[in-house]
Specification:
Layout: H1 39-70
């Protein structure tokens, strides 16, 4: 890579004090995607749906038993 010559020349004072300011700049990072539902909420919903399915199956079985008894 060819060497680039600087247009500006560095000047360091021979007397006095040298000050340097460090100005913080804002650093942007990638956005973090958060789930709309938490894992715990999803587990609770799954358990609730399984319980509802079990109740429906029990109700269907009960209806079938009643129909068999009445027939």
């Amino acid at each position: 890579m060819p060497e680039v010559k600087s247009i500006l020349r560095e000047v360091l004072p021979k007397q006095g004090q040298l000050y340097m300011e460090d100005v913080p700049t804002m650093v942007l990072c990638k956005p973090k995607l958060l789930p709309l539902k938490s894992v715990t909420l999803e587990k609770l919903e799954k358990m609730q749906m399984e319980a509802q399915e079990a109740v429906k199956q029990q109700e269907l079985a009960l209806k079938e038993q009643v129909q068999q008894v009445l027939s």
